[in-house]
Design goal:
The protein has 338 residues and is an alpha/beta fold. The protein has four domains: 40 residues; 47 residues, no CATH class; 50 residues, no CATH class; 174 residues, Nucleotidyltransferase, domain 5, CATH 3.30.420.10. 46% of the residues lie in helices and 14% in strands. The chain contains twelve helices and seven strands. The chain has a five-stranded mixed beta sheet with strand order 3-2-1-4-5, sandwiched between helices. A two-stranded antiparallel sheet has the order 6-7. A hairpin with a 4-residue loop joins strand 6 and strand 7. Helix 3 packs across helix 4 and helix 9 runs parallel beside helix 10. The relative contact order is 0.06.
C-alpha cells in the first residue's frame, strides 16, 4: 500500500518537472532495470497491487505496453481479462431465489422427455411426484429437451407398432443341375421375421402368385399391408386378388430394393445358408429343401433383431444332456437338452 501511495506522489511531482529532466530520469530508470534484470531470476512474483497498477496504466494509456521490461505485454492483457471475468462473476453471483435442481433430477427429466415425445411438462411432473420427487412444473418445463418440431414417435416405434400387420414378398432364382432356372416365392411377416410361405415354380405367372398368396395368408388372417417390388410377374390378376382379400398393396419405388430390406436380407440368408451349398435336382427337390429351411429358420435359428431368439420363441433349457440334431443333411444343427 505504501508503494502505491509513493507512486501517486511521484505522479503529482512529475507534473511540475521539465521535459528534459523527465527524459533523463526515464533513461536512468530503464538502464537500472536492465542491470537489475540480468541478476534476477527469470520468473518474478507480483502482488495483487502490482498487477492492478499495471492493468490500470494499460487501460489509461495502452502504449505503455511498449515500456514493460520485467513482464511481457501479453501477461498484462491476460491479467486484465482475468480481472474482467472475476468482476462479472462477482457481479452475477447468486444472492437469492429458487434452490437449484440436483443434476440427477435434471438428467431424469431430460431422459423422460426424450423417451416419451408425446409427454408434456404436466405429464412428466405427475410421474416425478409419483416417484417422490418434489419439484415445480415450471422447473420440469425448463429442463425438458427442446424440440424444433411437434412431438412425434421415432421410426423404430412406428415400424414396431405396424410390423405385425406388414408382410413382404419377393421372387428369387435358383439354378438346377440341368441348368434350368426355378423361381422361389418368399412371403414373410415383419412382426417376428417369420417365413409364412415358400412357393416354387418354373413359370411364375400372376395367377400362380395370387394363389400362393391366398394359400399363405388365407382370407381371414391376411396382413394389412403387402410390400413387393414392381416385377412384371405381378399382373392384373394378382392385384385384383390382393384388393379382394383386403390387403393394401405397397409396391416399392423403381430400383429401390432397400425399401423391401427384410425380404432382401432373408433371400441373402437363404442363399448363403442353404441353396448355395446344394445342387438342386428339380422343382420337387427345391420345394423340399426350402420347406426344411423354413422349419429350421422359424423354429431354431436365432436372430440378432429378436434378441438372440427364434421367430417362434424358444424356451431356454437348463438341465439335461445336450443332443445334436442334424438339419438339411448336416448343413446346420440344432442343439437340445433331453
Amino acid at each position: 500500500m505504501r508503494e502505491a501511495c509513493s507512486l501517486v506522489w511521484s505522479v503529482l511531482v512529475l507534473l511540475f518537472r521539465s521535459r528534459a529532466s523527465l527524459e533523463a530520469e526515464i533513461l536512468t530508470l530503464r538502464h537500472q532495470l536492465n542491470i537489475q534484470r540480468r541478476h534476477l531470476p527469470k520468473r518474478l512474483t507480483f502482488s495483487a497491487i502490482d498487477r492492478l497498477i499495471f492493468v490500470g496504466l494499460y487501460r489509461l494509456v495502452p502504449s505503455t505496453l511498449n515500456a514493460l521490461t520485467i513482464v511481457k505485454p501479453e501477461t498484462v492483457v491476460r491479467w486484465h481479462r482475468d480481472g474482467f471475468r472475476s468482476y462479472w462473476r462477482w457481479k452475477s453471483r447468486r444472492r437469492c431465489g429458487r434452490p437449484t435442481v440436483p443434476l440427477e433430477i435434471r438428467r431424469l427429466i431430460r431422459e423422460m422427455s426424450l423417451a416419451n415425445p408425446l409427454w408434456g411438462a404436466p405429464r412428466i411432473h405427475g410421474e416425478l411426484l409419483k416417484l417422490g420427487i418434489e419439484i415445480g412444473q415450471t422447473s420440469v418445463a425448463k429442463y425438458m429437451a427442446r424440440r424444433r418440431a411437434p412431438p412425434s414417435q421415432g421410426w423404430k416405434a412406428f415400424l414396431r407398432n405396424h410390423a405385425d400387420g406388414i408382410a413382404a414378398m419377393d421372387l428369387f432364382v435358383v439354378p438346377t443341375i440341368s441348368f434350368r432356372l426355378l423361381y422361389g416365392l418368399l412371403i414373410m411377416g415383419h412382426g417376428r421375421r417369420q417365413i409364412l410361405w415358400f412357393g416354387v415354380t418354373a413359370h411364375p405367372t400372376a395367377e400362380w402368385i395370387a394363389n400362393q398368396l391366398t394359400e399363405a395368408c388365407g382370407w381371414e388372417q391376411a396382413p394389412r399391408y403387402l410390400i413387393r417390388d414392381r416385377d412384371g410377374a405381378y399382373g392384373e390378376i394378382f392385384i385384383r386378388r390382393v384388393r379382394s382379400i383386403g390387403i393394401r398393396d405397397r409396391p416399392t419405388s423403381p430400383r429401390s430394393p432397400w425399401q423391401n430390406a427384410y425380404a432382401e436380407r432373408l433371400i441373402g440368408s437363404i442363399r448363403r445358408e442353404c441353396v448355395d451349398h446344394i445342387v438342386v435336382v428339380g422343382e420337387r427337390h427345391l420345394r423340399h429343401v426350402l420347406l426344411s429351411y423354413m422349419s429350421y429358420y422359424n423354429g431354431t435359428r436365432t436372430h440378432l433383431s429378436l434378441n438372440k431368439d427364434a421367430p417362434k420363441s424358444r424356451t431356454a433349457q437348463r438341465t439335461g444332456r445336450i443332443l445334436r440334431l442334424p438339419i438339411l443333411g448336416g448343413l446346420h444343427h440344432q442343439y437340445i437338452r433331453i
